Amino acid sequence: MDKEQLNELSREVVNSAFEVHRKLGPGLLESVYEKALAYELRLRCFNVQTQVVLPVSYKGVDLEMDFWIDLLVEEELIIELKSIKELQDVHFKQTLTYLRLADKRLALLINFNVPLFRDGIKRVANNF
Predict the structure, then answer these.
(1) What is the pLDDT of residues 38-92, one digit of tens each?
(2) CA 49, 12, 81 angle in degrees (round to 5)?
(3) What is the domain partition of the chain in residue ranges?
(4) Would you identify the CATH topology of the domain 3-125?
(5) pLDDT at 37 exceeding the cut of 90
(6) Which of 37, 59, 72, 83 is deepest in the core (most CB within 10 A)?
(7) In sequence order, what are the residues at sequence separation of 6 or more whose Cβ sits closer than 8 angstroms to the Cβ of residue 19?
(8) Residue 10 and residue 2 in contact, taking contact as beta carbons nearer than 8 Å
């Protein structure tokens, strides 16, 4: 997927997440937003995987520990979801680490627990 297509995909995911936030509002569990966003994206005919296993290796050795990507859209865009008071630097760094481990270029870090949706969304890039 080229840069323009990935940016368009990102816009579509943001629009879908906005719709979920508009319908459900803030204050629910992260798992509720995950299911709702996956459903909304599938309604829009996107390929969505949830709780994608992300193995961790160190110097070629499998550490036998995994992380989980909340949503992976079209095999390209990582979505990391939160439902917390406010995003912290550690959440940005966590998302960037997921990008690097998965060898992906773009992620969206979305916090649904905000009154205004635009205050809860951050783009995270890795060599993009």
Answers:
(1) 999 999 999 999 999 999 888 989 898 889 999 999 999 999 999 999 999 999 9
(2) 50
(3) 3-125
(4) Trna Endonuclease; Chain: A, domain 1 (3.40.1350)
(5) yes
(6) 37
(7) 40
(8) no
- Tell me the whole-structure pTM to 2 decimals: 0.93
* Contact present, 121 and 110 (Cβ < 8 Å): yes
User: Measured at the alpha carbon of residue 126, what is the angle toward residues 125 and 128, in degrees to the nearest 5?
Assistant: 75
What is the residue-wise DSSP string for 37-106?
A: HHHHHHHTT--EEEEEEEEEEETTEEEEEEEEEEEEETTTEEEEEE-SSS--HHHHHHHHHHHHHHT-SE
| Higher pLDDT among residues 1 and 111, named by residue | 111
Sign of the alpha-carbon dihedral angle for 110, 52, 37, 16 = positive
Instruction: Please answer whether residues 102 and 69 qualify as being in contact, where contact means their C-beta atoms are separated by less than 8 angstroms.
Output: yes
Give the residue among 94, 108, 101, 109 at the shortest CA–CA distance from 53.
101
Is the CB of residue 31 less than 8 Å from the CB of residue 56?
A: no
Average pLDDT over residues 110-126: 96
CA distance 75 to 29: 25
